[in-house]
Amino acid sequence: MDSGPPPSELTLHLTQVGLTASSLSSALTPVLQTITGHTGASAAAYYQRCDHEPAPLDGQDAALSRAPSYPVRVGQGPAPLPTLPPDVLRRLEHATDLLNLPPTPQQPTLLAAPIRERSGALLGALLITRSAGHWSASDCNLLRTLAGLVTLVAARLNAEERERDAQEHALRALGLALEARDSATRGHTDRVTQLAMLVGQAMHLAPDALDALRWGAYLHDIGKLTLPDTVLHHPGPLTPVMRERMRQHVDEGLNLARQLPFLPPEALDVIAAHHERWDGTGYPRGRSGTAIPLPARIFAACDVFDALTSPRAYKPAWTPGDALHFVQQGSGTHFDPQVVQALTQVLGHHAA
Predict the structure, then answer these.
(1) Which of 7, 66, 98, 282 is in Cβ range 3.0-4.6 Å of 277 for a Cys bridge?
(2) Cα gap 84→61, rounded to integer Å
(3) Does 164 or 313 have the greater pLDDT score?
(4) Do 344 and 236 fall within a single domain?
């Protein structure tokens, strides 16, 4: 067993991990490594509650089929991961301290720590196992400390998730505010956001990048809130003066979005660069190629496709096939060829 750093330094380090971890899994890895390195445990795992209601199997009790399961989230150690038998689950539901189970022919020695939500409901469990022997007082104290840390991380991430949900709803509401002013674009924000997400997934964007793409999509035209009605509602082609005023909505939208400190830079990129073109002839900066951020390149193609397939005062709606053909013709000039390829794939799978 590795002696490791002194307990005070170890606790400080793990608390810092808990306060800064971006996910429960990233916090659990050092926690479980600490357990197996500083106790006699041969394996350690965290099990997360997962409520679901699958259809009952033949002969299976319906109430049992609706019981929460606890699939393993993270495991550590050379031994096989410990299981979480139903009787352990039942005892954990009511446990106020560690659950210490002696070995049986069917299972090794188990020591479990319940992880509870603020309401007291069981969220999950830390479980450690050893082939024989008893847990020392220091083993139990360490597991209690680490159970408290996991509870802290889970509570913090849950609060941040609620805040993130509130931010998401607020951003969508801002995007829909423009549609309330311009009935011709009603539904555009949600449609183009959904399409951009599908293309982003097809291009294997990371989850954080997909979130930023979605948030930028919500706000892509927020600068149009500053446009006068004579420009926003003009029924035909814009005059040169109107066109120049229309182009200003990009920078005005960027200035508005920068007032939201929680927006990631990639979301601002969508607002700032979705009118740029692959060949450098777009606006407002005339950026070209990969100098245009990828989220903006993805959104640009989706934005044009949705605009073409939607009716406007100056044109009828195009068919999806005609609109896709137009986007494909712009591959390498207006649009990133890889984005066009991904959009074509997505529409082949999802367009009716």
Answers:
(1) 282
(2) 20
(3) 164
(4) yes
Closest among 133, 43, 28 to 84, alpha carbons compared? 43
Structural domain includes residue 28: yes
Looking at the predicted structure, is the pLDDT value of residue 4 above 60?
no
Q: Name the one residue in this structure whose structure tokens are 């993270």.
A: 74
Residue 102 has what DSSP assignment? -
Asked whether the beta carbons of 340 and 300 are under 8 A apart, the reply is no
Alpha-carbon span 348 to 352, nearest angstrom: 9
Instruction: Give the integer Cα–Cα distance in Å for 214 and 179.
Output: 17
Q: Which residue has the higher pLDDT, 226 or 206?
A: 206
- Give the tens place of pLDDT for each residue, 94-148: 888 888 877 666 667 888 888 887 778 888 888 888 877 788 888 888 888 788 8
Tens of pLDDT, residue by residue over 215-241, are 999 999 888 877 887 887 777 788 999
How far is Cα 202 from Cα 218, in angstroms, rounded to an integer? 20
- 82 and 192 share one domain: no
What pLDDT is attached to residue 330? 97
Q: 27: which residues sit within 8 A by CB, 6+ positions away? A: 17, 18, 21, 149, 150, 153
What is the rounded CA–CA span in Å between residue 146 and residue 346? 45
Q: Does 13 share its domain with 154?
A: yes
> Could you give the CA distance from residue 341 to residue 348 in angstroms, rounded to a whole number?
11
Cα–Cα distance for residue pair 192/187, rounded to 1 Å: 9
Instruction: Specify the DSSP element, H or E, that contains 11.
Output: helix 7-20
Burial class (CB in 10 A: 0-12, 13-18, 19+), 195: buried
List, in sequence order, every residue forming a beta bridge with 47; answer none if it has no partner.
72, 125
**Using the 8-state DSSP alphabet, how is residue 101 labeled?**
E
What is the tally of structural domains in the chain? 2
Instruction: Evaluate whether residue 215 is within a structural domain.
Output: yes
Alpha helices in 99-202 (DSSP H): 137-181, 188-202
State the DSSP code for 312: B
Residue 307 above 80 pLDDT? yes
What's the pLDDT at 70?
A: 53
Identity of the amino acid at 321: G
Q: What is the pTM of this model?
A: 0.58
